[in-house]
Amino acid sequence: MNVSAPSSNVPLPRQGRSNRGRALWLSSLVALAGVLMLLSLAIGTRSVPFAEILSALGGRVDTIGEAAVATRIPRTVLAALAGAALGLSGAIMQGITRNPLADPGILGVNMGAALAVVVGVAWFGMASSHAYIWTAVCGAGVTAIFVYAVGSLGRGRATPLKLALSGAATSVAFSSLVIAIVLPRNDIAGGIRSWQIGGVGGATFDRIGHVLPFLLAGFALSLLSARKLNSLALGDELAAGLGERVMLARATAALGAVLLCGATTAVCGPIGFVGLVVPHLCRLVAGVDHRWLLPFSALAGASLLLASDVVGRIAARPSELDVGIVTALVGAPFFIWIVRRQRVREL
């Protein structure tokens, strides 16, 4: 089947926001991400002045500060890419399920990718970066299909509450399986537990290079699905009546989200709540038009993960907290607020 071209007559959700205002907010997010990247380069066990940051960006490593910045550059790039991937994938998942609680962590997709990687390492001796990435992407995809299938059982099809419950149950079950696999394996336990927290420490351009094609493919599929997500927001019947191939549109967008989640989990570990918090905040500014919401979510996700990484370095000096811990501290109260705001009876 071929994807039909999006109809120019498809009505978009009504919004009271001007394109000019959203463009200004988008520019502000770009500036914020740039500032946070500079802070990520400057702050750590050793603070580095701006002059040394500039010289390090020019390739110099003559001083301790310049050498420190050189090691932080790939970490900063990875934090920005991972945050953008998680924020964008969260917006996609909420769009295709029409579920305000959808998130790669809550729906169990991140944990499915993590379980697949742990099984590959523990039982098959997996060691190469490409094997990690492919295994994580496949694990994320299979988990997404499984959660949707379980949430579709019974009456009422895949309601938001059923998807959230099936995703949470799947996440807990997979987390228990990871522990059961790792506990008897002292040779891999330390590395797996550290990776499972979720972080961007130890990043290198070599690791980023391995995961970058998967992220770029995920970004492209996700952003190209914006108009189709606007059609799906009208309801499956109306979208189909307007000429949209509903299942194909949903599958294409879901593939983009799975690529983003799986690739990010492979290189960073399962980082939760970014995909939940970011789209909700972005809708306050960008509205519900996915042509704006998706770029907003990518930039805001990058900013959130960069800020979390900086906060983690400041909060535990001279050590640091992994970004997975910081995002959990931010995201858990936000999740409770969303549940109360939506009033579970309405889900």
From TrEMBL:
This is Iron ABC transporter permease. CDD domains: TM_ABC_iron-siderophores_like (cd06550). It is found in: Cell membrane. It comes from the Bacteria. The chain crosses the membrane at residues 23-43, 76-93, 105-125, 131-151, 163-183, 208-226, 247-272, 292-311, 323-340. GO terms for molecular function: transmembrane transporter activity. Keywords: Cell membrane, Membrane, Transmembrane, Transmembrane helix, Transport.
